[in-house]
Amino acid sequence: MHKKQTTKYCYYCVNNTPSIDYKDWQRLEKFTSSYGKIVPKRRSGACSKHQRQLATAIKRARFMALLPFVSK
Q1: pLDDT 10s per residue in the chain (72 long)?
Q2: Domain for residue 71, yes or no?
Q3: Model confidence pTM above 0.70
Q4: N- or C-end of the chain: fewer Cβ atoms within 10 A?
């Protein structure tokens, strides 16, 4: 038997956030795994538009040393 899937909603669409800022590293940290990798769309629940913006913001935050490239 399969588990009943609950519908995930995009965090940014639900909260009506205008843009994703790379300087808000605490919020971006939620969308990275324990190893520092970017979490896929099916796990994060983000829509396609916001998942692309998330990936860009995480990469910029890594470059500015706000988030680590690798944790372990």
Answers
A1: 666 667 788 999 999 988 999 999 999 999 999 999 999 999 999 999 999 999 999 999 999 999 999 977
A2: no
A3: yes
A4: N
Judge contact between 44 and 54, C-beta under 8 A: yes
Name the 3-class secondary structure at 65: coil
Structure tokens at 16: 């009506």
Using the Cα atoms of residue 55, residue 61, residue 64 and residue 68 in order, give the sign of their dihedral: negative
The CATH number that applies at residue 39 is: 4.10.640.10
Domain-located, residue 51: yes
Residue type, 44: S
Residue 56 inside a domain? The answer is yes
Here the tokens at position 21 are 């800022």
